[in-house]
């Protein structure tokens, strides 16, 4: 009986439940091939965002992710900077003066004050950094037209949607602002 149980344990499980591997669903493509305009005869297709909504969504996601990563790095840098600025003078330990609870409380308050100031400045710079980094690639990206009557114009550049000053407004222009544009 024990020998029979040992043989069953030694056998490998090849059942469907043990051998199937489940993968996450594929992420849909950000850009898809669309027919090229007649002026772009070098290739029959170009990669473009499906429409202005997918372009706007990708642009906002890019800015958001870069801002988030920048702020995380800035918080670490600000913590180190605040700690260095608020540490007690080196000579205090040489003269035999130890740290008192009052000294620790003062250092904590100093570090909080320094962190707040540093993070506030860093957040503003991170927004500017994210805008600058996303603007160039997205201004050159192609955006497909939802309907096109002829093969004359099938897409346009992202710079037509990004034609605003990002320092004044964080919102992208709506679809209404680009109606009637002629794309070369």
Describe this protein's structure:
The protein has 184 residues and is mainly α. The chain has one domain. The chain has helices spanning 2-10, 16-19, 52-86, 90-94, 101-140; strands at 31-35, 45-49, 142-144, 155-157. It has a two-stranded antiparallel sheet with strand order 1-2. Helix 3 runs antiparallel to helix 5 (101-140).
What does this entry show, briefly?
By secondary structure, the chain is mainly alpha-helical.
Keywords:
mainly alpha, 51% helix, 184 residues
Total strands: the figure is 4
- What proportion of the residues is helical, as a percent range? 40-55%
Number of helical runs?
Answer: 5
Shape verdict: flat
> How would you spell out the order of helices and strands?
HHEEHHHEE
Structural class: mainly alpha
Strand percentage lies at 5-15%
What is the rounded distance between the termini?
82 Å
> Using only CA atoms, what is the Rg?
29 Å
- Domain tally: 1
Provide the low-confidence segments as ranges: 164-184
Could you describe the largest sheet, including whether it forms a barrel? Answer: 2 strands, antiparallel
């Amino acid at each position: 009986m024990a020998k029979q149980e040992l043989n069953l344990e030694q056998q490998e499980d090849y059942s469907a439940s043990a051998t199937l591997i489940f993968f996450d669903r594929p992420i849909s493509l950000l850009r898809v091939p669309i027919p090229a305009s007649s002026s772009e005869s070098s290739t029959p297709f170009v990669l473009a965002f499906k429409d202005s909504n997918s372009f706007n969504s990708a642009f906002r996601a890019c800015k958001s992710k870069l801002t988030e990563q920048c702020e995380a790095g800035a918080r670490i840098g600000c913590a180190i900077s605040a700690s260095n600025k608020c540490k007690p003078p080196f000579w205090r330990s040489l003269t035999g003066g130890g740290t008192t609870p009052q000294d620790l409380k003062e250092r904590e308050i100093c570090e909080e004050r320094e962190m707040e100031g540093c993070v506030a400045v860093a957040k503003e710079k991170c927004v500017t950094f994210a805008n600058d980094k996303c603007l160039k690639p997205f201004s050159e990206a192609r955006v497909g037209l939802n309907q096109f009557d002829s093969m004359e114009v099938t897409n346009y550049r992202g710079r037509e949607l990004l034609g605003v000053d990002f320092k004044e407004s964080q919102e992208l222009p709506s679809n209404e602002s680009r109606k009637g544009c002629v794309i070369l």
